[in-house]
Amino acid sequence: MVQFTSTLLVTLSAIAMHAQSAPLNKRIAQVIADSTAKWEQACLAAGGAEKCNPVSVTAFTTLLAAAGPCEQQDSADAMIDLAKTLNNDADMIKFAQIFAQQPRNTPNSQAVPYCQQAPKNPELNGLFQCQFQGADQQTFVGGLKVGAAGTIPFGHSAPLSPLGSCPANPTGPIADGSQLTDITSDPGLQNIGSSSSSGSSGSSSSDDNAASATTAAVTSTTEAVATSTAAAASSTTAAASSGSSSGSFQLQNAKDAQALNAKFATLTADSSCNDGDMACIDSGFAQCVGGKFVNMGCGATLQCFALPLVNKPGTSLACTTADDAAARMAAAGATGGITGSD
């Protein structure tokens, strides 16, 4: 039976500009999939193959407004963990360090609180997220004023100067909706003061458990994938080379994906939905918030499709090309193209 794909209870934020004359209640957001795109490309180049995309997806969902204050850092740790299994790939580590500083979505144009725990990997010591320029840098989500718990990065003893800055962008907050990886390729390690480098080289066992729990929770959900064509092509190759023992569920996965794509074609932003439902609407990745779909879009030249998983039963949502989506259906043995009716 076809049903909407659901994931963790997260709230998507619509892109909004802060008007000084209006109350500070506008959402500020971004195309979250862009935040890990360069890391994923580096991972694929380093030979990470199918291991890259799940880590990437887990990471960019931590930028959503409802994520916990340390989930972004936990995912950056996971990105570095994988890099260390791939000959300590320098580009993967660099982009993980920059990701750890990417601003998070804010639901009400207020600054987002900082994690108050040391990272697992020393490569992340002293790193914390920038804020978006449209956010009130004097007031944090929850109504917290500067100086309150969570408004000063871990390892610091005083508010940042300037407010909203981070090591990768020490001059202040960045433009609403923008990506640090489009602004700089330097994580700014030279900008970390001695007072902010107090994180240990390894986290406490409770931190490890928290990171593991976060990863397990996201991994156990149906994978909502916004990925590059290269990652999709890698999965397609894996599907084509898999043994006959997995052929039966792969074909069913493709048929389920086709049915979802046919269903998605009938939906609009005003279609009724349950909070947490995900769909592809008007070629963009969308999630249900407050009974209505919020469209996050896809990167340039890409569209959102339901695709068959390769190594286990199920489907995923991905931003890729129409040709790649059709090829993945065919590789799984399904006919009829993306919707099954071509």
Low-pLDDT parts are: 4-24, 194-244
Helicity level = 25-40%
Largest sheet strand order: 1-5-6-7
- Structural class computed from helices and strand pairing: alpha+beta
Structure, explained:
By secondary structure, the protein is of the alpha+beta class. The protein is 30% helix and 12% strand. The chain has helices spanning 37-45, 52-61, 71-85, 90-99, 180-183, 205-219, 229-241, 247-264, 322-331; strands at 5-6, 110-111, 136-140, 144-145, 277-281, 284-289, 292-297, 303-308, 315-320. The strands form three sheets. Strands 1-5-6-7 form a four-stranded antiparallel beta sheet. It has a three-stranded mixed beta sheet with strand order 2-3-4, with no helix packed on it. A two-stranded antiparallel ribbon has the order 8-9. The radius of gyration is 20 Å and the shape is globular. It starts with a strand and ends in an 11-residue tail after the last helix. 50% of the residues are buried.
What's the layout of helices and strands?
Layout: E1 5-6, H1 37-45, H2 52-61, H3 71-85, H4 90-99, E2 110-111, E3 136-140, E4 144-145, H5 180-183, H6 205-219, H7 229-241, H8 247-264, E5 277-281, E6 284-289, E7 292-297, E8 303-308, E9 315-320, H9 322-331
Parallel strand pairs: 2-3
Antiparallel strand pairs: 1-5, 3-4, 5-6, 6-7, 8-9
Helix pairs in contact: 1-4, 2-3, 3-4, 3-6, 7-9
